[in-house]
Amino acid sequence: MLAGKHILLIIGGGIAAFKSLDLIRRLRERGAEVTPVITRAGQEFVTPLSASSLSANKVYTELFDLTDEAEMGHIELSRAADLVVVAPATTDLLGKMAGGLANDLASTLLMATDKRVLVAPAMNVRMWEHPACQRNVETLKADGVLFVGPTDGAMACGEFGPGRMSEPLEIVAAVEAALMDGPLKGKHVLVTSGPTHEPIDPVRYIANRSSGAQGTALARALSALGADVTFVTGPADVPPPEGVNVVKVQSAAQMLDAVQSALPADAAVFAAAVADWRVASASSSKIKKDQKGGLPVLEFAENPDILATISQMKKGRPGLVVGFAAETDDVIANAAAKRKRKGCDWIVANDVSPETGIMGGSENAVTLISETGADEWPRMGKDDVARQLATRIADAIGEGA
Ligand code: C5P
Predict the structure, then answer these.
(1) Would the pTM of this model clear 0.90, i.e. be above it?
(2) Domain match, 52 and 123 both
């Protein structure tokens, strides 16, 4: 719910601007007050009259409007909101924000605000992928600007790829996460998820069947409790959640690097199914089918154990480290031994014997093992497991813990 929350919605000039009218409705349905600001280019796509009717509020368009300044100055306008949302955020707006330009009302408000800013980029795929745009995105992320999307898909210009603005309800979810005053507000939580891909040569790799569903659900649940989540994911089947900082990796070595660079964290949850081994010397060129010497022989090397490495850090260890243990025999005993061996605080143990249908399924039956004992949870959906675990994490490290 967004009751009593005030959103300043900056509508940029892109075809996705029509979705921003629906966004106004969706935000208001949840009790938010919306003040629209439409850039000059935005007004080519949606009219101030539509935005004003849907928001039941005055719409602002010009920087040098004496009537507006007399009613509410632009500085005040930028501060009165709880959150500033830019949707669609065009490449031009992102560039202005990253460069600190303030030559119209929207960019001036973005420079003057003391509130968090959430952007929903929308642009042609080539523009999104352009190094200049990606540089600006990195700069803005480093400045603490929140991103929702863009998503992949067919675009109005006929091309396909990342650049579509997120759907209004996804933006609403990101707004809720950004405004959430949950027990994990101000806490940085790191989550690993998905499988890893270990290269054999440039075109082949070794992988496992992890879908990334449990890790993704967990990142979403932690974010919903207000945590600032860094989500380090291997190539998963399910898309990453909105409103979290996503770091995509392929191999275990890259995952360890990404985890170490994301520290410090208040808690770290290792839900990834990391490959135990990699090919010792992956070939830099494609291994030929008819190579001399017959069939290739792969030699393996052990991958770093990310959970153990972080658990055993002497300095800067996250306050709470949680691992997973997928077992088929003596689940509790093996998982309890694993907790000690790796040095983590909690282990979430589950039985992945084929007859349980848990691996790849939508349900999970877990036992939470800590220093004080084993707590067996009933079988439930992976989303429910995620919410319950996020609540336990909040009890351990959150406000008032
Ligand atoms: O040893 P095992 O793979 O069963 O341990 C599972 C736990 O350890 C999971 O939390 C998994 O994310 C983590 N792990 C890791 N790095 C590895 C192997 C496992 O972080 N190389």
Answers:
(1) no
(2) yes
